[in-house]
Amino acid sequence: MHNKFLFFFLLAVSGCFAQSFSTSPISYYGIGERSNQSQAIYSAIGYAGLAHFDSTQLNLDNPASYSFLSQGNTLFALGMKGKTTRFADQEASIIRTQFLLDQYALGFKLNKKVGSVFALRPYANRGYQITDNNFTGIDSIRYTYLGRGGMSEILIGFGYRPLNTKVWKLSFGANIGYAFGVTEKIRRAQLMPSTSDYPAGEQNTLMRLNKLNVYTSALLQITPSNYQQIVLSGAYEPASFATKLTTVSSLSSVSLGLNGRPVYDVLQADSTDNTYNSKSLTLGISYTIFLPKWRIQTRELHPSLKMLVSYRSNSSFISGGDSSSHQGWSAGIQFNPEKELFENLSVLKFGEKLSYRLGVFTAENKFSDQKIADFGTTFGIGIPILIQQSLSSVNLSFQLGKRSNESGSLEETYGGMQVGLVFCPSSFDRWFRKRKLD
Question: What is the assigned CATH class of domain 2-240+274-423?
Answer without folding.
Answer: mainly beta
